[in-house]
Fold this sequence. Notes:
By secondary structure, the protein is mostly beta strands. 12% of the residues lie in helices and 35% in strands. It has a single domain, classed as Electron Transport, Fmn-binding Protein, Chain A (Pnp Oxidase, Chain A), CATH 2.30.110.
Amino acid sequence: MFYRPADGHGLPHNPFNAIVSPRPIGWISTRDADGRNNLAPYSFFNAVAYVPPQVMFASTSRKPDQDDTKDTVANIRDTGQFCVNIVEYAMRDVMNASSAPLDKDEDEFAVAGATPVECTEITCARVSGAPAALECRMTQIIKIEGESNFVVFGEVVGVHLRDDTLIDGRFDVSRFQPLSRLGYHDYSRVTELFELVRPGS
């Protein structure tokens, strides 16, 4: 099968998300200018640089109570900061509950049953008990092709690692089985690891 996205795929469901998978989930926490917490998962997310450490995520839709985007991007525009919480398999239902389309004045932490705890370097909440959390200062927001498509870049200025994830000096993802997004309503978790040594390393 071959199709041009501009012409449509002719399938019952769009295969694009299933093709580009698995994708890590950035569980992004923000705080608006009035001090209200927000929490939402984004699967267009990744790390993009080592020095300084930087991450990105993309938001691809809008809410009726925001002008052209969702609460997360609107809050980052106002405050210049956000936190990326890493999602473990054990918190899959809490993460999913935080994706509900709530009004901007509702607190997803409370609705989903996640416990907020203050960040260290930024004035924002993070998810208590998350395996890791990356405190970020926004460096740029880029509008890309398509309605309400924004890419947010941030520099990581603080890193939280849960104590039980550190084994022999390494951050061991097998201790918490990170959740990843596939296509459609499908997810996966990391349960097996293997090593490949890069030639010349």
